[in-house]
Every structure is written in C-alpha cells, then in structure tokens.
User: Fold this.
Amino acid sequence: MKTINLASISLVIALISLWSCQKNGNNTGPYAAIKAKFGTKIDPTNLANYANQTKPTYIIKDNTAGNTISNPKATLGRVLFYDKQLSINNTISCGSCHIQKFAFGDTAVASLGVLNGRTARHSMRLINARFGTEAKFFWDERAITLENQTTRPIQDHAEMGFSGQTGRPGLNDLLTKLKGIGYYQELFKFVYGDQNVTEARLQECLAQFIRSIQSFDSKYDEGRAVTPQDQQPFPNFTQQENMGKNLFLMPAQFNQMGIRTGGGLGCGGCHVAPEFDIHPASGNNGIIGNLNAPGIDINNTRSPSLRDIVAADGSPNGPMMHTGNLRGLQAVIGHYGTINVAPGNTRLDPKLRPNGVGQQLNLTQPEVDAVIAFMRTLTGRNVYTDVRWSDPF
Assistant:
C-alpha cells in the first residue's frame, strides 16, 4: 500500500485554488483589493514618478515646506483626489471640480456639489500649485497651507457634504467609512505601515498629489531655457509674442490722474515670472462681487499661476476670477485697462491705483493682442493627458 504524501496533496490543492481564482478573474496577494479596483492603473510594485520629476533650473519658488513628495503618498493622494466616496452621497470628488482637461479647473462658474449644492467661488486651477512663494490657499487665503486646504471642501456643506451640520455626517464619519474600504486598507498599510485613516494623512497625501501636478513644456519654457533673462527677446517667439512679454513684465508709467503715459502694463508686479505665481503681498484686483450672496467681498487676494490659463487653441480653461465673470483674456486685460475704485474696497492692490486713483492703461489694440499672444505661450501640453494625474477609477 502506497503512502499518501500530504505535502504533495497540499501543493495540488493550492495550485487548483490559484488556477480557479485566475479563471474567475479574482486577484490574490497583499494588494488584492487594489488590483481588483484599479487593475494596472495603480500598481504598488511599480509606482509612477511623482517624487523625481524634472523642472527647469530657473524655477526656484517652492511652497512644499516639510511635506516632500514621495511616490507612495502621491499615489494614495491621486486615489483620494478622484474618489467620489469622499462625498456624502458618492457623487463628487476633488476631481469633479478640478478637471485635468481644463488645467485642473472647471468650465462652470460655480462647480456642482452634493445634492445640487454649488461652490461659493469659482474653482481655482491647480496647475503648478507648488511653485510659488505664497503658501496660503483659497481665493481669500483662509487656509494657511495647501495641507490645510485639502480637507475643507470635504467638510463644506455644499461641496462634498461631510459638514456635521443639519444632521449630516462629519469628517470622523468619513474616516470610518474609508477604513472599511478594502483598497484603502491596503493602500494605507502600503504607505504608512498600518491601516489607520486620519485627517492628517489625507491632507499629507492629497497635498503631495496636487503639488506634483506641474507644467513646464510650454513655448515660454522653450524660450526661457535658452535665454538668460526674461527681459531679453526669446528666439523662438514671434515679434508680437516678444512685444507682449515686454508689456507684461515692464512697469507702467502714470501721470497724476492715473493715466498710463509710457512703459508696459505692469502685470509682472503681481504675477511674477518665471513661475507666474501671485505675489503674497498682493491686494485684490478690483473684482469684489459674490457668487451666491449679496454685498461685496474684498478679501480675494489669491490667484492661481497664470500658466495654462488657456488651452493650446487659446480657449479659456474655464471662466476667470473668483466670480468667474470674465470669459477670456480679452476681457481680463480690459478689466485691468480701467480700474474703478469701488466704495468700501479698502484692499485694492496699491499697484492698481497709482497716485491713489484707479489706473487707466490707455491700451491700444496691438498691445492687447500682443499680451494675449504672450499669455498663450504659457500653456503646456503634457499636463492635460499624463496618466499620473488622471482618474484611476
């Protein structure tokens, strides 16, 4: 009588089980839930490069502070950014209002939130959020860091709904919800070594993903890479584009009545090249309306980078300003052409009221056309389609 080899039987059973799982499309192993949800879009054993992206040598501003980008945390941030389960009814994600094909902005004036709620301000584009001196976020700078900003829309009653108001769940309810989801159990274990889901971890990972979104392959960058200073002509620019660049960068000269008599337009005083970020000391730009409420709001002094303000074809990546009331670059330049000092606007940027009166740039059509041509050179290509920043669901 032959002896039964228990080890051989166990091996056969294991192989049959593995074959059965593969045949039925099931994933096994330490990342089974991740593979089942994302397939090849999220692979913990082969992460996309977020941490070591190249940037031009002339880009020196950085608001990262101590939250240095890592591939695992930025990957988790990508999942969180696009996951609609971060809203109370599983309908809205961060990516619903910050859309990749629109430079992570929105074409709606006010973005749609949960249960037909609307954002109180136009959704700000997120291109190159890392590369600026200003560390505060939101149009009114109420978040002291990007980390602080990331979980506020989640807790906004109209946006993603975890407000804890009028019987709605609060942030702790969301954390409990995420802890019960298999792919988050595996992702947090992979990134942090345990499955604990906290607000600080959400903030850390979301901020890393957002800071990883960068655009430095524009016509402007091609010219700046071979030109020592912005003030010098770029060899790859047309005459009109170089004219627009000079007008953008050069301060204006005004008479006592605030009328421009020479120089450029002074745009670079607030939107500082080569990052084209907003100067932290800027006041508001004279647009003081509210989207969903009466009265004025003078506290909107933040701006996204001007990079990718329009698409490659020149169409705007959504309406502009916190009210979304300007629909194109022509309208934006027209606004700055004549600044009215409205009653009660005590925070109008001093650069827009020379000698205490609202500036009048006295623009010509060739100047307007040139500045528009220059601003279109700030638009890149890769950021609109790169899968690292795409929806993994």
